[in-house]
């Protein structure tokens, strides 16, 4: 019998996940079907329950349900626990709902493996203090950067994220207007790019050695990366690779085999 998987969100029609997992399945010879499910905004829990009750094997969770998925899980991985959000669901042998967050691992793998950016000992700036940023901090700190600065319009929100890692001395929070000096890597975790907006950032944070990474992606250069290019950044990367790599992590969690990602990433780039 073909195993059933899906991504659940609202809206979800734009999701690239079905295309990604279909290619993973072919490449790894897995008998599985992966679809998209749009859950009502007030109907996430019954949607998940119905999917697993009819024999579904695993779900990816996207906006706006990641925090709700976290609350629903009976068992969470350590990464999911810290992230406060879940994007990958499955049931274990006892029927308990389990959750993981593969976003942070996907980001780090894209940066370090696909783009060969070394984070060890580097000065890293993370923009934003929402759920997307919370999900990447633990994997980022595991790369042993020299310093990680979280900048946000409201510094109190950034301080809340710093407090998740007591005893970590190379992590601090600032307001955007407190930023000073150049950074080796700048990661944009705000949603400003989606609205065609840009956080109020000083150009001095960017030099000819800086690599920028926008967790957003699109057919055109994001607003953030366009700004970074105008400031003379060394390289400006978008989040499409993060999307593919987090999907590969989820696939490996479900199927026990991690698919290669380069062909899938090239396929998505070609689609525009």
Please, could you describe this protein's structure?
The strands form two sheets. A six-stranded mixed β-sheet has the order 2-1-3-5-6-4, with helices on both faces. A six-stranded parallel β-sheet has the order 9-8-7-10-11-12, sandwiched between helices. Helix 8 links the parallel strand 11 (211-214) and strand 12 (235-237). The longest helix has 16 residues, at 240-255. The protein has ten helices and twelve strands. It starts with a strand and ends with a helix. It is of the alpha/beta class and 272 residues long.
Outline:
Helix content is 37%, strand content 20%. It has 272 residues and is an alpha/beta fold. The longest helix has 16 residues, at 240-255.
Descriptive tags:
37% helix, six-stranded parallel sheet, 12 strands, 272 residues, globular, six-stranded mixed sheet, alpha/beta
Number of helices: 10
Could you state the order of secondary-structure elements as H and E? EHEHEHEHEEHEHEHEEEHEHH
Order of strands, widest sheet: 2-1-3-5-6-4
Low-confidence stretches: none
* Rg for CA atoms: 19 Å
Mean pLDDT: 96
Briefly note the structural class of the backbone: alpha/beta
Number of strands: 12
Write the layout of secondary structure elements.
Elements: E1 3-9, H1 17-27, E2 32-38, H2 44-53, E3 58-61, H3 66-72, E4 75-76, H4 78-83, E5 88-91, E6 97-100, H5 103-114, E7 123-127, H6 131-142, E8 147-152, H7 155-162, E9 171-175, E10 185-188, E11 211-214, H8 223-230, E12 235-237, H9 240-255, H10 262-271
Parallel strand pairs: 1-2, 1-3, 4-6, 7-8, 7-10, 8-9, 10-11, 11-12
Antiparallel strand pairs: 3-5, 5-6
Helix pairs in contact: 1-9, 5-6, 5-9
